[in-house]
Amino acid sequence: MRKIGLVGGLGPESTADFYRCLQFEVRKLTGRDVMAPVAIDSIDAFRVLEYADSRRYKELSQYLMGSIADLAGADVRFATIIGITPHVVFPEIENRVPVSVASMVDTVIAHCVNNGYKKVGLFGTTSTLRENFLTWGFAAQKIEVVIPDDSDARFINDLIMNRLEYKPISAEDRERASAIIDKMVEEKGIDALLMGCSELPAILSGIDLEVPAIDVIQVHAKAMATLVVEESDKAENLPDAAED
């Protein structure tokens, strides 16, 4: 089976969730007790966020490309970055690395198109909400992206940072987050909420939402499992293909 490389650690628990979902989906797709070979290069989430927040995109690109190069050295056939925020530099790095890299942004947009969403609310880090790398992709598919007001956006960013720093998320925090979502539904008419940071599913767990919540970790893990299985099937059908 084809080996996939994960640029992980963005954050640690969501990387583990991605790995678990990937392997579950591989077993489901193949119908066999099998696990995909995976190499994980865990990078520093705080360093990534610092580069993104200060728009030091050249340094962020170099950092990510170094991680992907390390994964290529582990003989992966393709790689992906387990986090939305670093995708701000994805167009700059995708053709400058030694292996094919799958975009989490493309996966999420395809998911929204397939589900017929027309107006999506976006939660994420300050840098994700500030830049246009998500909204441009959605706009190309005629999907509107709605972001929270400035004060609400800062609150969501603080929750993400607290989660990464292993600080507790209180019931009051979740109530305010729920109120922000309700306001976006009522005032902006969103028909889905995109949890545009890998830590948000844990932060928002237990909240009853009026619209579907899109978990980027699960959506992308399922897509990558499909890619792993399809690429492995292709390799096995090649003449004289050696087993991985």
Brief sketch in words of this structure:
The chain is built from eleven helices and eight strands.
Structure write-up:
The chain is an alpha/beta fold. The chain is 54% helix and 13% strand. It is built from eleven helices and eight strands. It has helices at 12-30, 45-53, 57-73, 90-93, 104-114, 126-130, 133-140, 150-164, 171-188, 200-203, 216-237; strands at residues 4-8, 38-42, 78-81, 100-102, 119-123, 144-146, 192-195, 213-215. The strands form two sheets. The protein has a four-stranded parallel β-sheet with strand order 2-1-3-4, with helices on both faces. The protein has a four-stranded parallel β-sheet with strand order 6-5-7-8, with helices on both faces. Helix 1 (12-30) crosses helix 11 and helix 5 (104-114) crosses helix 11 (216-237). The radius of gyration is 18 Å and the shape is globular. The relative contact order is 0.17. The mean pLDDT is 93.
